[in-house]
Amino acid sequence: MEEHLPLLQITSASFKQLFERYWKRLFAFAVKMxxxxxxxxxxxxxxxxxxxxxxxxxxxQDVERYLLRSVKLKTMEYMRNKSTKQRHHxxxxxxxxxxxxxxxxxxxxLNHKVNNLVESLPKQxxxxxxxxxxxxxxxxxxxxxxxxxxxxxxxxxxxxxxxxKMGLYPxx
Length: 172
Prior knowledge:
single chain; 172 residues; mainly alpha
């Protein structure tokens, strides 16, 4: 024959007593399961908050059992959510790392291709282009240094850019 205990009516005073009586035990249980004191505090706080908010609608016969079960369920939910968050975090990190590494490979390949195209230019064209793009010289400075007209500098740069464009984006 089952023994029926009276249902618990939670008042402000009884809530305080429950908190003082069970908080440490629930906290220790949550810490054991989560291995993190801050997370355990949050879980236990959440249990007591829920208990207070639902106090008028709850029919609790065994408070200790109810609280321990609540902490167990809340901790399992927390662990499941933490595991899911960690998996998502790992996926994002690995994807980002792969994308970054892929981009680095593409950049290296592109630089190699550009360098090969520049090296294949005629000598004067190559010199003008390098002075302009790598050394940052103006057309006037290049013309003065190489003893050619600014118009010739423009021609060489235009020819170099056209060669690069055709080499990098061939028309099919």
